Amino acid sequence: MPPRPSHAAFRPAVWSALIRTVAFALLWLPTPAAAQSFRAEITHQARGVFPGEAVLVRVVPSVPVSDIRGAVFGVIVRFYQADDTSWEGLVGVDLLVEPGSYDLALQITPVAGTPVERDYPLVVEDKAYPTRQLTVAPRYVEPPPDVSARIARESQEQQAIFADASDARLWRGPWGTPVPGRATSAFGSRSVFNGQPRSPHSGADFRAAEGTPVVAPNVGRVVLTGDTYFSGGSVILDHGWGLYSYFAHLSKILVDKGDLVEPGQTVGQAGATGRVTGPHLHWTLRLNGARVDPLSLIELLAR
Ligand SMILES: [Zn+2]
Q: Which CATH architecture describes the domain 33-124?
């Protein structure tokens, strides 16, 4: 009969067997029934997935869920229940996002059970935007030194608004245009003012005579009104959940900060204030910070 191993030699073998048993048991821990049977059909809808577009992501879970949240491009994407079976969330692909594949990381919380995670790839394609040449008053291309502090302050104020997302979703139903007629758009154009390149055009322009009523495209809270150096008469509406409308070059402002406006309610009148070549309405849309073409959103939510 071989000698019994000493106590010291026996111990590592016992531990190793014990660890193997525990690991095996962990592998076979039963998963909750809800997570095992959970399925989610995830699709998206957009004119195209490229810089400057709003993308509608639809999730159809196999069981009732209480919440869906996503994360992509470093921001949170909130989802709302669109009908009995599906949830929708809006993703903004910023004008300057590099083409490539990005994962939308979803966390889906079933009414019964623990949250389930899913990744949904969004493949951003390249888009070549045209360049436009514009002639404006020289003070908008080389601003005099005494307005530089004002320009910096106005820019910071706007960035602070767009960086925030209010908790209530105010917008609902279909989106309209703020003035009648088709947009001359030029969203995303690389703008050259008096021969000098400036940042890309981050809104849609609509032909509008001076005095044309500008109406809210959806429900929103007025969070900024006033005269700004480049944008002239300005109104910013907070539609909730990180979605904002910015109207520029207004000749008249007819709302006050704090007002809640309904779709179709007049917020001001079109004009030619600020850096313009003539009267028109400029509409910028910000979606969780991303600069997206307002027309891409209208098309998705024109139901
Ligand atoms: Zn514009």
A: Sandwich (2.60)
The segment(s) of the chain belonging to CATH 2.70.70.10 are: 131-300
User: pLDDT per residue over 215-250, tens digit each?
Assistant: 999 999 999 999 999 899 999 999 999 999 999 999
Ligand 1: centre distance to CA 209 (Å): 14
Question: CATH topology for 131-300?
Answer: Glucose Permease (Domain IIA) (2.70.70)
pLDDT digits (tens, 9 = 90+) for 81-123: 999 999 999 999 999 999 999 999 999 999 998 999 999 999 9
Cα 231 to middle of ligand 1, angstroms: 9
Give the C-alpha separation, 198 to 135, whole Å. Answer: 12
Q: What's the 4 CA to ligand 1 centre distance in angstroms?
A: 88
Segment 285-291 mean pLDDT? 96
Rounded distance from Cα 23 to ligand 1 centre (Å): 62
Please say whether the beta carbons of 209 and 252 come within 8 A.
Answer: no
